[in-house]
Design brief:
mainly alpha; two-stranded antiparallel sheet; 11 helices; about 70% helix
Length: about 210
Amino acid sequence: MLNKTKNLTKIFIILAIFLSQNFISVQVFSSNKTFEIKEVHKLLNQKKFDEAINALETLSNKNIINAQYLYSQILYSGNITPQNFEKAYFWSAISDLGGFKNSKKIIKLLENYLDEKEKIEINENIKKFLEKHAMEKNKLAIIQIAKWHIELSEEIDYINAYKWYNIAVASGIKSAAKKRDKIINELSAEEIIDAQKQSNKIFKKINKIGG
């Protein structure tokens, strides 16, 4: 009982720090209920752990990176839900691609628990997740999938990274221009033309331009 109390206290401390560092109020509508990160805090304090986990999963599936980070922490620790290292890696890696730097800590902790074959399989699922959100015009996912081709692909794929950074800039993410222009130096003239054709095709599909 004492250990359980300590574990719960640890979760609350982690969450308090987490909330103090993240001021973004994120709302997600699911089953006619609005969830926010702060709502998760309340649910945990009320020991409504199943509801808290469900809320975090809902937010994570909406590609909310701070929720993904917290969810990965809980999945790694196993204090209020059984440990699940594969899911912890999945969500921490996506959060990391979104720029949530603390996620790297979870990824590092998982290094000794997942082999390369498992990571490759999870990384492919991450790609599918991000591509789906990118095609739904989620700007963060567009950046994340570009980074995926550099950081999580089995082999660095400059063509697809350039393609997505090119789409990101066209979508109004001007900060992606430096990355796009840096990667272009890794491509041949033929590869650039091919990547640009792919970019235009996907950009039109995302924005539903033309037939």
